[in-house]
Amino acid sequence: MKARVSGIRTIAALSIVLCAACSRPEADGDGDAQQEEAALESARCDAAIDPRNDPNAIHADSSSTFFEGWYYRVLDPTNRESYIVIVAYGRAAGATNAFIQVSRSSDRKTWTTSIPGFDVNALQRKAGTFDAAVGGVRFTANSIKGSFVASNGERVDLDLAISGCRYWGAPSDPGSRVTMGFAVQAPGVNTRWDVHHLRSLADGTIVTNGARKTFTKAYVHQEKNWGNGFPSHWIWMQANQFNGKDAAFVASGGPIFGFGNSPEGYMAGLRYEGKFYDFKTQTGATFTTASYQNGHWQLEAFDALGQHRLVVDGFGSLDAAAAVPILVPSASGPTFGAAENLNGRLLITLYQRSGITSWSPIVNLESSSAALEAGGSLRNK
Fold this sequence. Notes:
twelve-stranded antiparallel sheet
């Protein structure tokens, strides 16, 4: 079965809104890009975000059904081994809960811990900042530090320092940092999504049951979701290591609202050699294909001005022998609602219009260390 989807690691976009002026590819000159690269090595990963308007921060929401979660992927560029770290909390059906998940790409092993009765109010008193202490681990944009005992009885120790963030958006334009743009405040959107950064550098260790993994300048991708619940289905693709080229990419999608037959929205961001190419439904981009079927992800998008075309193909099995299960918040507590291949193959071609009906490629990118996910009803397709 082939399903068309939209949105971004869990949605977000108002498909009825078109804003051609907002859809320009955000490109910086070489000088700006070089200045930014020079500053990356020592930059804190919370330094460029306005605390008054930071989607990556904790949200204060007293709704009876609400969740919020952060996702990190840490990739060793020397051998392509990666770990994902997820932390989330939620309120549903009169109960609260939180969880942590750590998964490893090399053997697909997963460690989880659940914290029933989690004090949501205490965490939300830190609204406006990203400083979340959950289950013995402290999570910020700059670090992950702490330990927990997983449900299988094994201990997990996390000690990572993160710096040098390449944020979503054009390198020298702080006004483009919010992934959803104006739609982040739109009413009725079931799941909101923000990519804090497409690539940063991490140093430190992850120790699982005594086995130590040391990272030196590992590549990190960090994003988050929050809202009333996850959609009925979604796709998601991410990579920040490409065949020797300076690039980072993420895209995703699914239904915008929580009811049946909801319209779908799409978002994709490609950062390549100091330029940022932004494709979003809510700013007028057209997504002609967005699908997952039998280990094949497909996406094709055109920007609102019709000047750039993005073609993406992802390949990777979601069988238990090849992928890790992904915990997501639900009305009954954390549940494995998605699957993610951490060793996927991703092919991307970015085109520029060269004639009325012709296109010229700007770049061809290939990654053999992509993360590819399908969730909800698509998980077993």
